[in-house]
Design a protein that fits this description.
Elements lengths: L12 H8 L1 H20 L7 H26 L7 H18 L4 H25 L4 H20 L9 H8 L13 H27 L7 H23 L6 H19 L1 H11 L1 H6 L4 H27 L10 H11 L11 H20 L4 H24 L1
Helix pairs in contact: 2-15, 3-9, 3-10, 3-13, 3-14, 3-15, 4-5, 4-6, 4-13, 5-6, 5-13, 7-13, 8-9, 10-11, 14-15, 14-16
Length: 395
C-alpha cells in the first residue's frame, strides 16, 4: 500500500509578509538595535536629552540631502557633487549676509535659486546630452569646491545674523510654559504619533475595501506601536531639554511631503518606472529626460537648503564645509534600502539609513573610537547593506 506524502504546510500570512518586506523591517530593527547597543556601551549618554538634540542637529542636513539623493538614485543616477554644492551655497550665504549685509530672507531665496540652477545645469547634461551622471557630478564636485574656496578667498566668513542662526540652532516656542518639560513640543510629538496611526489605519482600511493585500493585524499593531513609542519618547527627551529644534520641524515637513510625492502622485510613480526600466518607461509615454532633469533640480535645491542649515549651525562659512557629505548621503540611501540599479527605495528607508549612520558616528565618538576606525566601520556597513540587496535580487 503506497503512502502519500502530505504537501508541505503553507507559510503563515505573517511569515510571508515578513519575508516580502524583510529589508524594510530589518532597517528599523537595525536602528533600534544599534541605539540599544550604544546606549548600553556609553552608560546611557547616547539618549540623554542634550545628546539627542545634538544628534538631530548633526544629522539634519544629511537627512535633507538624502531625500533628494533617494530620487536621483531611484531614477538610476548618482550625484557626487552634493557636498560641494552645500559648501558653495553656505559660502554664498556668508558673502551676501556678512560681507554685503543682505537681509537673511532674500539671501536665503537667492541661495535656494542658486542650488536649483546648479542642479538644472548638471541635470541638463545628464538628461539631454546623455553624459553619465557620475562624470557630470564628479566634475561638479571639483568645480563647486573650487568656487567655494574662491568665493571665500580661502578664509572663514562669519558670524551670521542671529535670526539666520535660529534656522539650525533655534527651538520652537512653548506658549504652555511648562516648568520641567516643554509641553508644546511634547504635545506636538504625541499629536504626530496619533495622526500617523490614524492615517495608516485609514490607508489600510481603504486597501481592504478594494481587495488589496494588507499587512497582518499583529504586524500592523506592533509596527505602529513601535513607531509611536519612538516618536513620543523622542519628543519627551527633546521636551526635557529645549524642545523641538526648528530644523526637526523642517525635516519632518520634508519627509511627509516626499513620502506623499513618491507614494501618492503620478510623478513619483513615473520616477520609479524610469529607474526600473528607462526604455519601457519611454515607450509608455513618460518623458524620461524631463524626469531626470527635475530630479537633479530637486537635488540642487535640497543641497542648498542643507548648506544653509550647516552654515547656520557652525555660524560661519569655511572653505572645507561639505567635505565628505556626499559619502554619508549616498550611504544613507543604500543602507536604507535603495537599489544601486535604480527603481527601488523608500523615503522612510533613507531617513532610517541616515540616522543609522548618525547614531554610529555619535556613539563611536562618545566611546572615543578614532576617526580612522570610524571610516572603516562605516565602509563595512555600507558594503554589507549593498551585498544584502544584490544577494536578495539574485535569489
Amino acid at each position: 500500500m503506497e503512502q502519500t506524502l502530505a504537501p508541505p504546510a503553507a507559510p503563515s500570512r505573517t511569515a510571508h509578509h515578513l519575508k516580502q518586506n524583510l529589508r524594510e523591517y530589518g532597517m528599523l530593527l537595525s536602528l533600534v538595535a544599534i541605539m540599544v547597543f550604544f546606549q548600553f556601551m556609553t552608560d546611557g549618554t547616547l539618549l540623554e536629552p542634550l545628546n539627542v538634540t545634538n544628534l538631530v542637529l548633526q544629522n539634519s542636513y544629511i537627512v535633507i540631502m538624502a531625500l533628494g539623493m533617494l530620487l536621483v538614485i531611484v531614477a538610476g543616477h548618482i550625484d557626487l557633487s552634493v557636498g560641494s554644492v552645500s559648501g558653495f551655497v553656505g559660502a554664498l550665504a556668508a558673502v551676501l549676509m556678512v560681507n554685503y549685509n543682505w537681509h537673511f530672507l532674500p539671501a536665503v531665496l537667492v541661495c535656494l535659486v542658486a542650488g536649483g540652477l546648479i542642479g538644472a545645469i548638471q541635470g541638463w547634461f545628464v538628461a539631454y546630452f546623455r553624459i553619465p551622471a557620475f562624470i557630470v557630478t564628479l566634475a561638479g564636485m571639483l568645480v563647486f569646491k573650487g568656487s567655494a574656496l574662491a568665493l571665500l578667498q580661502g578664509q572663514s566668513v562669519g558670524p551670521f545674523p542671529d535670526v539666520f542662526q535660529r534656522l539650525s540652532s533655534g527651538f520652537i516656542p512653548d506658549p504652555l510654559r511648562g516648568t520641567n518639560l516643554r509641553l508644546t513640543s511634547l504635545l506636538l510629538g504625541v499629536g504626530v504619533a496619533a495622526a500617523m496611526i490614524v492615517i495608516d489605519w485609514r490607508e489600510r482600511s481603504n486597501h481592504q475595501q478594494h481587495g488589496m493585500e494588507v499587512e497582518p493585524n499583529a504586524l500592523f499593531v506592533v509596527r505602529n506601536a513601535v513607531f509611536a513609542a519612538i516618536i513620543v519618547a523622542l519628543s519627551w527627551l527633546l521636551a526635557s531639554y529645549k524642545g523641538l529644534p526648528n530644523v526637526l520641524v523642517i525635516m519632518f515637513v520634508l519627509m511627509v511631503a516626499y513620502d506623499f510625492v513618491t507614494t501618492r502622485t503620478t510623478i513619483g510613480r513615473r520616477i520609479y518606472a524610469l529607474g526600473g526600466n528607462e526604455k519601457a518607461a519611454r515607450l509608455s509615454g513618460i518623458r524620461t529626460e524631463r524626469l531626470t532633469f527635475l530630479a537633479f533640480v530637486n537635488m540642487g535645491v535640497l543641497a542648498a537648503l542643507a548648506g544653509l542649515i550647516f552654515a547656520a549651525r557652525l555660524n560661519t562659512a569655511t572653505p572645507k564645509a561639505g567635505l565628505g557629505f556626499e559619502l554619508d548621503v549616498i550611504a544613507a540611501c543604500f543602507i536604507g534600502g535603495a537599489s544601486a540599479s535604480g527603481g527601488v527605495g523608500k523615503v522612510m528607508g533613507a531617513v532610517i539609513g541616515a540616522f543609522i549612520m548618525g547614531v554610529m558616528n555619535n556613539g563611536m565618538s562618545i566611546l572615543g573610537v578614532g576617526i580612522d576606525y570610524q571610516q572603516v566601520i562605516k565602509g563595512l556597513v555600507l558594503l554589507a547593506a549593498v551585498f544584502v540587496d544584490v544577494y536578495n535580487k539574485n535569489k
